[in-house]
Amino acid sequence: MFKKLKLVVVAQLRQGLGQQACCHAIAASLTIGLFPIMGFSTFVNAFIAAYFRLNQPVVQVCNWIIAPVKVALIFPFLRLGEWLFQAKPFRLSLAEFSTRFFSEIATTTVEFAWTFAHAIAGWLICAPLIYGVIFRVSKALVRHRLASSPSRVIE
Q1: Alpha helix locations (H) across the chain?
Q2: Of 40, 46, 54, 106, which sits most exposed with the smallest number of CB within 10 A?
Q3: Whole-angstrom Cα distance, residue 116 to residue 105?
Q4: What gap in Å lies between CA 122 and CA 76, rounded to an integer?
């Protein structure tokens, strides 16, 4: 059993190390990592990486690195979604909402379902642009890194 697990882990470490694949892994994981609902991006990134055969360690590291930015962007995504749907603004602070959410998860989820939908809608509007910018920047950085050390990335 451990031999089979070792083969799976080694395959994940070697998979998706080409220039394009690395750039897609970085862009996808950072974009999905900004998803405004806490706790979903790790699982979604794992699924996306497995489905598109992206490098799982690169995807997960990028996902965890972007976490502080995610927290900072929750309210801008929420405000964009509220603006799109002409909804009343959400008035709780992040600290108040977190305390309430973690004390009564089910009740808070039902009560603020539209708030979550507005934040997700704001993220969905921004996600293609975020992905495109990150992909282009990562492509330039990876290309620059390959020029300085061609043995680092496998095509």
Answers
A1: 2-14, 19-33, 41-51, 56-65, 67-85, 94-103, 105-111, 113-148
A2: 106
A3: 13
A4: 8
Structure tokens of 74? Answer: 């929750």
Identity of residue 9? V
Query: Among 116, 32, 19, which Cα is nearest to 66's?
Result: 32
* Residue at token pair 């995807």: 59
Q: Whole-model pTM?
A: 0.76
d(CA 62, CA 58): 6
What type of residue sits at position 57?
Answer: P
State the DSSP code for 90: P
124, burial (CB in 10 Å: exposed 0-12, middle 13-18, buried 19+)? middle
Give the pLDDT score at 146: 58
Instruction: Dump pLDDT digits (tens) for 27-63.
Output: 999 999 999 988 899 999 999 998 988 888 889 999 9
Contact 16, 55 (CB under 8 A): yes
- The CA-CA-CA angle for residues 111, 72, 57, to 5°, reads 100
